[in-house]
Amino acid sequence: MIKCKPIRVGGILLPTNVLMAPLAGYTCYPFRILCQELGAGLCFTEMVSANALKYKDKATEQLLFTTSEEKIKAVQLLGSDPAVMERAACSERLSEFDIIDINMGCPVPNVFKSGEGSALLGDLRKASAIIRGCKRSGKPVTVKFRIGIKEDYLYAAELAKMCEDSGADMISIHGRSRSMMYEGIPYYDQMEQAKSAVSIPVIANGGIFSEEEASYMMEATGADGIMIGRYGLQDPFVFSRLTGKKTDKDKYRIISEQLELTSRYYDETYTMTYIRKLASYCMKKRQGTKQYKLKLYQCGNLAEMREIIKDIFYEGEEIES
Ligand SMILES: Cc1cc2nc3c(=O)[nH]c(=O)nc-3n(C[C@H](O)[C@H](O)[C@H](O)COP(=O)(O)O)c2cc1C
Predict the structure, then answer these.
(1) What is the DSSP string of 25-60?
(2) Do 24 and 166 sit in the same domain of this protein?
(3) Which of 64, 182, 208, 278 to mutate to test the pocket of ligand 1 (most atoms within 8 A of CB)?
(4) Which of 223, 243, 263 is the C-terminal boundary of a domain?
(5) 320 lies in some domain
(6) DSSP per residue, 116-177
(7) Ligand 1 lined by 230 (C-beta under 6 Å)
């Protein structure tokens, strides 16, 4: 078991040090509420383009949707222009959010080419100006970064120091380079060096797919907390197990509740896309699920989807023979 403890981020106390990673297409409001309920200390929105904030488009509205049920609200911003990032962080549209997180890790070619995400790892002056600009919002600012662009040159400690010196209140380190994308063993030593270089809280991320790996991450890096991504989609109960937060729900119940909560606040198309992807992730460890996935992708409305979710996840009462 990991040592579960609260973490202070600026003036905000996160209840636990087990965080859910921002995941594009997944960490919408309903999923964040689920993680909060199961004990996650914080769950971020997926990355939101700072440039897109000036438009009132539906997609950005959906990304920013939240209610007072979400106790601590953290929005992740993606951008490369310090002035645009500052304007976004200070904008009225983010007024509900308590924490601003800056994306310095996204490896996707289009993002990288436009100087955003992991490209900022190659321009520390600009990265620092972005953090300083976002701090002018008066809110705690956190940074999520990778440990370098290419695997042959890793400099997590330098990046951590730059973040701290620029005013960051917490850093989350994905222990891989941009070139590693989402595969390969994370560099625990890099995260450990980064932790030793700063006094702000350090969260270690990457490749945690079991409770043992969670413990190992804490031990090997000395980090203050961990951040879980894909494992949290496969098995959201990991937060409950790691934090000791009790729940009497099963997978069927949480997925059904996700469906209802999503359809309350989002349209049918969004809800169906999200539930399909979430249910598929939740089946990752099961055998013989091809037919279920096919049904999920073929079904045409929420009523049908409710039935399919029941077929897949409802285990029913034990019948004594
Ligand atoms: C589908 C997907 C979407 C992601 N979206 C984001 C994102 O919006 N912002 C971000 O900082 N990282 C994003 N990431 C990276 C994760 O937050 C995390 O750093 C990465 O998956 C490693 O953690 P894991 O091995 O526990 O999954 C994404 C990863 C995946 C697989």
Answers:
(1) TT-SHHHHHHHHHTT-S-BEEEEEETGGGGS--HHH
(2) yes
(3) 182
(4) 243
(5) no
(6) -GGGGGG-HHHHHHHHHHHHTTSS-EEEEEES-SSTT---HHHHHHHHHHHT-SEEEEESS-
(7) yes
39: left (phi over 0), alpha (psi -120 to 50) or beta: left
Residue 317 has pLDDT above 60, yes or no: no
For 300, the 3-state DSSP assignment is coil
Indicate the DSSP class of residue 12.
E
* End position of a domain, from candidates 243, 273, 299: 243
* Residue to probe by mutation, ligand 1, list 18, 23, 26, most atoms within 8 Å of CB: 23
Entry pTM: 0.97
Per residue in 57-80, pLDDT (tens digit) is 899 999 999 999 999 999 999 999
**What SS3 state is found at 279?**
helix
CA distance 158 to 39: 32
